[in-house]
Amino acid sequence: MAGNSYGTLFRLTTFGESHGDALGGIIDGCPAGISLDFEAIRKEMQRRKPGQSSIVSQRKEDDEVQFLSGIFEGRTTGTPIGFLIPNTNQKSDDYSHIKDTYRPSHADYVYEKKYGLRDYRGGGRSSARETACRVVAGAVARQILPDIKINAFVSSVGEIFIDKPYQALDFSLTESNAVRCPDAATAQKMEDYIKEIRKQGDTVGGTVTCVIQNVPIGLGEPVFDKLHAELGKAMLSINAVKGFEFGSGFCGARMKGSEHNDSFNEDGTTKTNLSGGIQGGISNGMDIYFRVAFKPVATLLQKQEVLTNQNTLIEQQGKGRHDPCVVPRAVPIVEAMAALVLADFYLINKIYQNH
Amino acid sequence: MAGNSYGTLFRLTTFGESHGDALGGIIDGCPAGISLDFEAIRKEMQRRKPGQSSIVSQRKEDDEVQFLSGIFEGRTTGTPIGFLIPNTNQKSDDYSHIKDTYRPSHADYVYEKKYGLRDYRGGGRSSARETACRVVAGAVARQILPDIKINAFVSSVGEIFIDKPYQALDFSLTESNAVRCPDAATAQKMEDYIKEIRKQGDTVGGTVTCVIQNVPIGLGEPVFDKLHAELGKAMLSINAVKGFEFGSGFCGARMKGSEHNDSFNEDGTTKTNLSGGIQGGISNGMDIYFRVAFKPVATLLQKQEVLTNQNTLIEQQGKGRHDPCVVPRAVPIVEAMAALVLADFYLINKIYQNH
Amino acid sequence: MAGNSYGTLFRLTTFGESHGDALGGIIDGCPAGISLDFEAIRKEMQRRKPGQSSIVSQRKEDDEVQFLSGIFEGRTTGTPIGFLIPNTNQKSDDYSHIKDTYRPSHADYVYEKKYGLRDYRGGGRSSARETACRVVAGAVARQILPDIKINAFVSSVGEIFIDKPYQALDFSLTESNAVRCPDAATAQKMEDYIKEIRKQGDTVGGTVTCVIQNVPIGLGEPVFDKLHAELGKAMLSINAVKGFEFGSGFCGARMKGSEHNDSFNEDGTTKTNLSGGIQGGISNGMDIYFRVAFKPVATLLQKQEVLTNQNTLIEQQGKGRHDPCVVPRAVPIVEAMAALVLADFYLINKIYQNH
Amino acid sequence: MAGNSYGTLFRLTTFGESHGDALGGIIDGCPAGISLDFEAIRKEMQRRKPGQSSIVSQRKEDDEVQFLSGIFEGRTTGTPIGFLIPNTNQKSDDYSHIKDTYRPSHADYVYEKKYGLRDYRGGGRSSARETACRVVAGAVARQILPDIKINAFVSSVGEIFIDKPYQALDFSLTESNAVRCPDAATAQKMEDYIKEIRKQGDTVGGTVTCVIQNVPIGLGEPVFDKLHAELGKAMLSINAVKGFEFGSGFCGARMKGSEHNDSFNEDGTTKTNLSGGIQGGISNGMDIYFRVAFKPVATLLQKQEVLTNQNTLIEQQGKGRHDPCVVPRAVPIVEAMAALVLADFYLINKIYQNH
């Protein structure tokens, strides 16, 4: 109810501020008997953490996850999986200058108005550091979805777009560059642009595209809990996200029905896939694909006007170790949230799909 | 869990197939003591129902809602509000031809695969007729949100867009034309285009923009239940929706932080509003605005290939009384879902906002 | 949240006041493909309704249930099952005398204090008439639990108790007398006593015992959602219930561990069953049995002091058609609630039991 | 869904096995701005922990709770409160003998059957050690309920009962003896009896009575979420509980309505209180009181037959440091669960009570 849980059957609840002792979470509802691949979890954490390359934040976060329960002799026991990510590198003094001020386009102001106080050290609960817990849970969720492939990648940075359909891309190349764009030429342009933006002390937005393959038919519940509605909510819950579209998306709104309908093949697959793998909220076995829009990071290394809690405006020089462009690091987060959504529907479907 | 409820505190649960005896729902969690304006509810139902003009479906649905409980002497009692919308105009024979076939880009195929059977009369549960219950509940929800103004309108049909910011529009004109576009010149173009499309037996998509004004600061819960994430889910749960963006949306992903940040005024309002009235998932008191993409209706009055349950493809002539363009009728549905989301957060905030 | 739903996967939401137009409910989460036995549902409704014999209320309630959705050609479709029970025999004038008064040990007073108003016609939402919806849903729930046998019966009325263990009873005799006590001699004593109580214009309490057999091992979730904890909540939610015990119950609190432990047989069954078929909140395959205490009905056909809404006490003569003893009619309600609890855990277990 | 959360608005989710690295939990939904009394929390933990006196288990558990988030400068921030209780004194070797065996009246057997494996070190998740997290959360919950007084005490051990109504007891004496019985003479008898039982290597059951005073009118939701139904579920979810009754309880089932009804005073209070402070599921402002039955602890320091996972029966000598009687340590757990229930309804009531 207070917003810190995701999912119903495969349910993640998280806690933690960016500058407290630790972040952590509880995964409740993970089936028993799964031999967890801890290396896979560690690898996802590495992908999310800052300081991986010159185009992302140079903060150092070790992001070592400690599993405290729910696992015995390497296998899940069916009891809740508690985990902890200690905050080993909090530098509270980085943030002391914002104690009495509200930064533009941050959550400082609304937290203080809503709760009457706020943990002003860093972003507190609204920091993107919170997404580390999502990545842990997503990496566990993927392991109960063995055959489903989830591949996200950066599809645009600022005005630089991949100009190919996803089918023309080789997802194995996504990790081959710092931007996480599987098209090498475009990746280079993006990287150059991000470096330029960084020099300006500025930031830039971008989009992440995610493709989910080998999805069984039948995932998703009709009416309010449509599969794409939950995917949309999951993506929009990630910091800095401003939009979500799946299948034909906003382009579909410009089309005619005779262009948009996906004709069947005799085996139930479809010749085209403008539907994006989902009909009436339920997966139809075709690829699911969607696109997520991220705004530019609000923290600039420039002078900006900030509001004080005395209702005056003062100029403040941004500082710290922030990302000039958030989308490369958003890639594993998008995948993690997709995995959480799928895991939940996969478990629900064990009940409702009439085999 | 099975997808037929929306909301947590102000909670709507619905039932009903397009060709059963009735649709209906239960609103649980409506506060006591509210003098309901039944005329306002009736008016919203009128806006949604087919047959209002020449550019929408000519089906006749009386859509009279009967309230069965939870209201005494005109006021809500705090007990659940049960309501019924009888299906007075079901023409099952319109649909008998689809008993053994699956129409392209409909939910027929996935329902049958998921559940092992389906109510083949019309769209069954996946019919947009289901949205009638949303409109009833949304019209009740609005009445616990007295000062908040929710105005949706058609912002594009096919390639025809309103080329003005919403601030330049007069929402009182939305109902003055059949398209529900508050810009008269654009509305005329849209109407002409829809008529042309209808003659072709074709359909066309479009977008609905929604503006919410006078929102108190503090609505929305951090992390997973961000206000815009719930708005996104609510909109994506409406039939035919393919995308959602709020504030700067997908355009924001092309921008730099120095362009995108909304500078404060001394009173806590902001000079610009690319954030779309929401920071960190919580309303900041500025206008909330978002845009919803609807694909073209899949049912065409043309010949199309359909899949039979014997795994063959046959040609079928579409017939019936369908909408050539769904967006005009989607306007009250978008508003209703927005009202449901806001009502839920408004009630939650009674607990969590520290006044 | 507002208390009108029961269950998570097999979820019943109800509405309706005793003197409104209708009661009704929605069953969401019933699996698809079940051929419903409507006669079985009707029969359970008959067992619950008043006027069946001289020892229960002589109100006439037809209690015809109308199913409005979720069923197609006799089978469940996986979509929500909406149902309606019209109130055909409301006599509001029976209750006009209580408009401005609060009856002792009724909910009149607390409803008015909580909600600021109340539907004073009869018990409104707090009337036991509400349990009709539970019986409908319970009768559906039983049909997804084919091999599990649920048998409730009256085990005491006032000071008259069955003095045999349940194993010595023949449950097929429960319906052979008006009291629903499977021991004929005790049933006769109970019936005589209830008739005497009725002549006095008084009422009397009693207990219902319920035995559930053929339960698979593994139902129930650890820690907070233990099987017996949910059974307890379900029973305590029935009007007039004051206590719940299972297995050894309150007697167990007097025993020593060496007397109480249930030794195993080699096949995993136990030699004794003081545990009542549940260990650590999870069914162990032995019979589940529990006992529910019902207080005497508060409405007396005698003079009683009532409180007015002007804070004065006045004498009022009780009238109407109330039950002198509620437990005979409570038997099918206890069974229905047990079925709802089991159905929910049965569905959950499809996910969590590691087969 | 998997049973490790309690509450809806004030929501506790827990994790942890008795012999893992740590237990812990997340409290989500605690309002912001509360200055937490950490000493009060520590004190409740002390009351629960073993080794406090000669009549309880001599295990040493430090039970130091570490708060990791949601608190800033001593006050709650409205974000989730994560906490950790390290297991500093696990002696896994105490339990190695039960790896391949199932102890009578323990959860070993059903966990293994349900999940296909179990953490055999101690009780794992089914250990009463899990209740430490409940006590932490309950101690926080009490601090949002400032005027409500919750007093539990041991009302019986075996056949030894307090023979006075609770009104004749001085709750300030509860902590004055090892049994937590506020009647000194009875406490002495109980203590002597428990020592005798311990010498026999046996255990004994008992009851805890809880009295809640200064409850505002209006807590509890009608129909399924009645206040006493939730209290019942909360109590029945505690390890070893076999029964729950409130107000007149099982005695009420023997009474006549003319004896049982609670007549009003002119101020809305009642002359008697057989209702136990709750009418129709909603608090009426009178004292709430209930009684909870605990079975004797199943672990005996005697020889018992156990089942092996090879389906043979062998004799095993119980060993370890278990409680001869669980009820003294159950007192703070009962209070904690009562506080959790009340906190949840107290928050819900902020929405639904029409002031």
Task: Report what the structure shows.
4 copies of one chain form a homotetramer. The first copy, chain A, has 355 residues and is α+β, with helices and mostly antiparallel strands. Chain A has 8 helices and 17 strands. The first copy, chain A, has helices at 38-48, 108-115, 131-141, 184-199, 227-236, 249-252, 257-260, 327-352, and strands spanning 5-6, 11-15, 22-28, 66-67, 71-72, 75-76, 81-86, 101-102, 149-157, 160-161, 206-213, 241-246, 278-279, 282-283, 288-294, 303-308, 313-317. The longest helix of chain A is centred in the last third of the chain and has 26 residues, at 327-352. Chain A is globular and about 65 Å long. The mean pLDDT of chain A is 93. Chains in contact: A-B, A-C, A-D, B-C, B-D, C-D.
